[in-house]
Amino acid sequence: MIDRAFITVLLLSISGFVFCAVYMPLENLAYRYTSAKTMVTVNTIALFSFVLPLYLVTSFADGSEAAFRTYDTLILDNSGGYESFVIAVRGLNITEHLSDLWFLGVVCTLLYRSGKYFCSLYHLISNKFEIDDGLWAVEFEKLKQEKKVHHVFLIGSYRLTTPCTFGLRKRYIAIPAAMINSFERDEVELILQHEFYHMVHKDLLRKFFIMLLGCIHWFNPLFHFLKENLLYWQEAACDEEITNNLDDGEKRRYVHLFIKILEVQSENDESEKIGLHFVRDDLGDYKRRLEKIMRKSDKTRVKGKVAVASVALLSMFCGNVVAKAADVPVNQMFSENIEIVELGTREKIKATDMELDTLFEYTESTKEGTFVEFTVCNTEDTTYEIVYKNPKTTVTAVQNPIDPQHIHQMEDFVWKEHKKNSDGSCKTT
């Protein structure tokens, strides 16, 4: 089970890489023709390309997935290229432990992130205080009714240095204690609008699922890059929603909010660990957001969305096509359900070590039309030698025959029986 899951994750990593190779160079161009909200959707699709094994539909249809789920012998011709590389690597006996290492990484990453999340949540909740009156409370209740958002609470915290939204079922908008008396009414409204948009767009739930997916792809730096890119676009989408109908002067006041919040930020902020925060400490992201806020919107939204969505879907399709093409090579390299042997390899087996289903009755027709019959005996003094030869070009072990490149069924071999007689002599058949 772990072996099959590991191989699926590797193939999905290939699919996600192809998606990014096709789409990411076009990301800035795509934003010129659509909205930040659409970019959030596209980046979500990019991340889900790492977990949606669409190629498996074809693998089940042609029988290759069923074939690789059964234990079999794959005979490879070590004449150069990828097959010689497979034989060399698997001969080192390192690939068989990689799936266990990956699974251990998944468990450790999940425990680490869960621990960090609940620890930060505990510190925030234990140091919170209610904001039930004053300017913040008034604006909060007004927006709560306007946005029709329920099960959300406004709190203050001594552990934060930037406004933050966190929680799934019971959600909170947390305001740093140092900011309670530091902002004007219009600034308070803008900050709360930003945090409410996170809830309206389901950004918290999105971040939670992405965190779980990150545990599966803990070894993949590209996935973590895309996760950070998605967080940026989530913040940009909230900025866009707020500033779309503002004039240049009002946009400048919104930009000044960033500066005021940055003045009180520190390295002890807990918001990054549990939720979404107004201003991140990444100055590169900060600069990109400001540029987009001040840029005039001249986007053809409908056409832009269709074009960008089409490119994203095409990228996902290309990724799964490549993943399907890599299906067999990856299975050859890492599958524990197959045994790799080199063409011409000879293997000696004692009869007592043979499985019961290995015993068979051999029948061969002669030119004269008679039959030569003998039974492979399971006696202590009998050994057999298998000579691995070229496999045939058809596979009958699978319900649906598959293409020759998928063949891993040993069908052509020679048995040599070496029997020790009671008088000490040997007889080879």
Structure, described:
It is a single chain. The strands form 4 sheets. The chain has a 5-stranded mixed β-sheet with strand order 2-3-5-4-6. The chain has a 4-stranded antiparallel β-sheet with strand order 8-11-12-13, with no helix packed on it. Strands 1-7 form a two-stranded parallel sheet. With 429 residues, the chain is an alpha+beta fold. The chain is built from 16 helices and 13 strands.
Overall outline: elongated
Number of helices: 16
- Rounded average pLDDT: 76
Whole-number count of domains: 2
Strand-residue proportion: 5-15%
Number of strands: 13
**Largest sheet features:** 5 strands, mixed
The rounded Rg comes to 31 Å
Précis, in short:
With 429 residues, the protein is an alpha+beta fold.
Core attributes:
429 residues; 2 domains; 15% strand
SSE layout and pairing:
Layout lengths: L1 H22 L3 H5 L4 H13 L7 H7 L1 H6 L2 E5 L5 H9 L7 H29 L1 E3 L3 H14 L4 E6 L6 E3 L4 E6 L8 H16 L2 H14 L4 H23 L4 H15 L8 H4 E3 L5 H12 L6 H25 L1 H8 L3 E5 L3 E5 L10 E5 L5 E5 L6 E7 L24 E8 L5 E3 L1
Parallel strand pairs: 1-7, 3-5
Antiparallel strand pairs: 2-3, 4-5, 4-6, 8-11, 9-10, 11-12, 12-13
Helix pairs in contact: 1-7, 1-15, 1-16, 3-11, 3-15, 6-16, 7-10, 8-9, 9-11, 10-11, 11-14, 12-14
